[in-house]
């Protein structure tokens, strides 16, 4: 469920009666409440290709670096040729930057043949209602 508008109630730190009932919210286990400002920019992404050394071992690990992530919660999604991939994905927890925003990294390991066959790899990150994506493929990378 997603709410796009919220009424702000201020009770000076202590609410009673109807105001208290209006702001009492019960969440189930695992529920995340993300309050964001529509004016916040989306995350900034950089995707790094696999190393030539690693490709010799028949594996290819791509790294997605996300910076300026608002709120510290982000959903990362990897796609290969527009197909969502969950196997071989490791995403670290967000770390706070000096500017109070967050940074995180995610790693996708695939067979080197997928990289060598010039498949398009996409990293998508959504946070605070904003999303960004970057596509990369071997033919567009310098050696």
From TrEMBL:
SMART domains: IGc1. PROSITE patterns: IG_LIKE (PS50835). Residues 43-137 form the Ig-like domain. Gene3D superfamilies: Immunoglobulins. Keywords: Disulfide bond, Immunoglobulin domain. This is Ig-like domain-containing protein. It comes from Ameiurus melas (Black bullhead).
């Amino acid at each position: 469920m997603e709410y796009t508008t919220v009424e702000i109630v201020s009770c000076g730190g202590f609410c009673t009666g109807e105001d208290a009932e209006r702001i009492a919210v019960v969440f189930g286990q695992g529920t995340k409440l993300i309050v964001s400002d529509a004016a916040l920019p989306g995350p900034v992404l950089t995707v790094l290709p696999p190393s030539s050394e690693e490709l010799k071992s028949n594996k290819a690990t791509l790294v997605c670096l996300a910076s300026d992530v608002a709120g510290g919660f982000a959903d990362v999604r990897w796609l290969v040729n527009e197909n969502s991939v969950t196997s071989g994905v490791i995403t670290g927890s967000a770390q706070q930057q000096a500017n109070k925003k967050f940074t995180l990294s995610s790693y996708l390991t695939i067979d080197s043949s997928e990289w060598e066959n010039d498949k398009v790899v996409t990293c998508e990150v959504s946070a605070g209602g904003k999303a960004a994506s970057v596509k990369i493929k071997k033919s567009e990378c310098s050696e």
